[in-house]
Amino acid sequence: MAATQKIAAGTAIAALCAATLAGCGTGSEDSGDAAHGPQKGGQAQAPKNAVRLIGDGSTAYTGAQPNLPRPERLRPGRKPPQFVVFSWDGAGEDSQKLFSHFREVAKENNATMTFFLSGVYLLPEEKRDLYRPPQHSPGRSDIGFNDAQGIADTVEQLRLAWQEGHEIGTHFNGHFCGAGGVDEWSVEEWKDEIAQAKQFVKTWRTNTGSRTAAPLPFDYDKELIGARTPCLEGRKNFTRAAAELGFRYDSSGVDNQVWPKKKRGLWDLSMQLVPFPGHSYEQLTMDYNFMVNQSGTSTQGDPDMYEYWGDQMRDGLLQGFQRAYDGNRAPLIIGNHFESWNGGTYMRAVQEVVEAVCVKDDVRCVSFRQLVDWLDAQDPETLRKLRALKVGQAPKKGWASYLSADPAPAPKGVPGAPAAKP
C-alpha cells in the first residue's frame, strides 16, 4: 500500500448498543499520591552508550524505557487517581500524519498513550508472501501492506513514541474478521500470528533493504505485553495464548465503567460503555462504533452531520469520564483508529477529550503498560474494595473512610515494595 494512501482500519466492528501514574511524588491532599510528569526516583533514562543491536539490527536494546514514572501503592484513605487510556488500533503513519499529530497532542497535554501496531504495516507489498496468516493463503491481508516510505515513516513514529514513554502493543497482522476470521483461530494459530507480528517488527530493515537505517530502540519480545484483537473477536483463544506467552493484559472486550480484574492471569482492560447523547442506550468507547451508529456502514456520511456526530462522541466520552471522576474512579478505556471517517470528526472529538481531561487534577492519561504497573503495585484488598463500587458509585462515607485501612506490605520484587535492606 502506498504511503500516500490512507491506512485502512480493516473489517467493520459489529455495532454495539485521559500524564503519569499515581505515586510519583506529592499530589493534592485527596488525590492518588501523584504528580504530573516523570518524577525523580522513577525509571532511569536509557543510557546513551547501552545500545545492543538485536538480530538484523531492526531493533536494539537501549536500556530501560525513558519517561516512565515509578508506580507506588495508594496511601491509606487517599482517593485513587482517575486513569484514562487513549489507545490506537493498527497504528501507522501515512499521508494523514495522524500518528505524529497525536504524539504532539499527547506531549502538549501531559499524556502517554498505547499504539497497537499492525505488523503488516512494517512489511512491504513486494514481500507480502512472507506473511502466512492462519487459515488463509500466504500474502493475504484484509488491511493490505505498506511501501518503503510508509514503513520508514511508521518506524520513525514508533521510535519517537517509545522514547517519549508511549507503549507499543500489537493489533496483530491481517485483521481478519467475521466468517473465516480470527474468531475461529486456535490457541496455536494465535501464537503463530503473534510470532509473525513480532517477526515483522524485528526484520523490517531486511525486508525493506534499509540496512543502514536506525533501529527501533527496544526489544519487542520484552516490550510487547498486551493487545487488542481485530473487531474484538477471537478473545477466548487469544487470551489463552497470550497468558502462555507472558502477556500482562488484554483490551479486546466490552465492559461497564468498573475497576478491572484479572482473567486467565491477564488484566482485563476492556473498552467500556458510556452515555450516548440523544439515545437511551450506551455506546462503546471506540470511534468506529460511534460512526456505525451514526452513518451506518458509510465512512463518509452526510457532511451536514459531521460536526454534530463529532460533538456526540466527544460529549459521550466526557460524560463517561465525569461519571467515573465523580464516582468510582474506574479507569476510562478509549479505543481509536487513525482515520478520517466522516470528515475527520472523530479525530477532532478525541483531541478535544484529551485537551479537556488530561490537564485536570488527579487525572493520569497513561498507557496500558503504566496502568497495569500501577494495578500490580496495589494491595489486593484495596483493589477488591475498588472493584466493589458500581458504575458511577462513590463511597457513601467518602474515600478517606472507604480506603482507610493500612494496606498489606507489597511482596519483595513487586513495584511499590519497600527497598531491600543493605
The SSE order reads EEEHEHEHHHEHEEEEEEHHEHEHHH
Structural class: alpha/beta
CA-based gyration radius = 21 Å
- CATH-level-2 architecture: Alpha-Beta Barrel
Main pleated sheet: 5 strands, parallel
CATH superfamily caption: Glycoside hydrolase/deacetylase
Short description:
The protein is an alpha/beta fold and 422 residues long. The chain is 30% helix and 12% strand.
Question: If you had to describe this structure to a student in words, what would you say it looks like?
Answer:
The longest helix is centred in the C-terminal third of the chain and has 20 residues, at 306-325. This protein is an alpha/beta fold. Strand 9 (262-263) and strand 10 (266-268) form a beta hairpin. The chain has twelve helices and 14 strands. The radius of gyration is 21 Å and the shape is globular. Mean pLDDT is 88; it is low at 1-47. The chain has a single domain (52-402), classed as TIM Barrel (Alpha-Beta Barrel), CATH 3.20.20.370. Strands 3, 4, 5, 13 and 14 form a five-stranded parallel sheet that branches. It has a four-stranded mixed sheet with strand order 6-7-10-9, with helices on both faces. The protein has helices at 98-108, 148-163, 187-202, 204-208, 220-223, 235-244, 287-295, 306-325, 345-357, 368-377, 380-387, 399-402; strands at 52-54, 59-61, 82-89, 114-117, 167-170, 226-227, 249-250, 254-255, 262-263, 266-268, 271-275, 282-284, 332-337, 363-365.
